[in-house]
Amino acid sequence: MKPTRNVRWPFALLAYLFTGLALAGIALPGLPTVPFLLVAAWAASRGSKRLRCWLEAHRHLGPLLYCWEQERAIPRRAKQMTVLLLFPSWFWIAWVSSGTAVPVAMAVLFMTVAVYVVTRPSPTQPVRLSAGE
């Protein structure tokens, strides 16, 4: 059953919004990339075939999506980068925060994310994330 236009456009809007957030998360500390990417892929599969195809064909994002969808796995290099980048993100948040509540909450959140990411399996097949990695 093909979704009607009235059903597709909210998913397409959501997909483009979360794709933008995922791309912003690549450059901005404290803004996660992978959760936004997964929501974008889910919404795009229901609302925008063009965006879904673009995400799957993207040289950096495509292999991550493939691993997640096929095996619920995260490549070892992506795990390392995720955990490594949580540290400068937390230090930046702690530096710009005036109180202690936000840094403490973010420390708990970041530790939870790190544990979740590290405990996911690695793909059974080698994955090339990009030409430079």
Automatic annotation (TrEMBL):
Keywords: Cell inner membrane, Cell membrane, Membrane, Transmembrane, Transmembrane helix. The chain crosses the membrane at residues 12-42, 101-119. The keyword Protease does not apply. It is a multi-pass membrane protein. InterPro entries: DUF454. One of its GO terms (cellular component) is plasma membrane. It is found in: Cell inner membrane. It comes from the Bacteria. PANTHER family: INNER MEMBRANE PROTEIN YBAN. This is Inner membrane protein. It comes from Thiohalomonas denitrificans.
